[in-house]
Design a protein that fits this description.
Layout lengths: L2 H25 L9 H4 L6 H21 L8 H26 L1
Helix pairs in contact: 1-3, 1-4
């Protein structure tokens, strides 16, 4: 598999990880921070916008997983890239959202 597929799967996992808190917050009815919040002059966006933003992240991740190289879950190298993408994105998001909570 070409190296670009591993990079795409790493990025897809990071984007999917970013979609989770937005989608969950939106479904729970809680406002949460999105990239669009700054445009409205607010710190958070509506629950509905968060559902849409989380869903859009899932769609982009799916397209990257499905269309760039075959996805072989269980293959050690592909699994490592996906796990690292989720870990790196999770740690970065935890740091960003912890700053917001403080």
């Amino acid at each position: 598999m070409p190296w670009i597929a591993f990079l795409a799967h790493f990025l897809a996992a990071a984007i999917m990880t970013n979609g989770i808190p937005h989608f969950v917050s939106g479904v729970c009815g809680r406002p949460f921070r999105t990239p669009f919040a700054r445009m409205s002059g607010s710190r958070t966006s509506s629950a509905e916008l968060n559902v849409v933003w989380g869903w859009a992240n899932f769609v982009v991740a799916f397209l990257l997983f499905a269309n760039i190289g075959p996805l072989y879950i269980g293959t050690p190298i592909d699994t490592i890239f996906i796990a690292l993408g989720m870990l790196v994105a999770g740690l970065l998001l935890a740091r960003i959202f912890a700053r917001d909570a403080a």
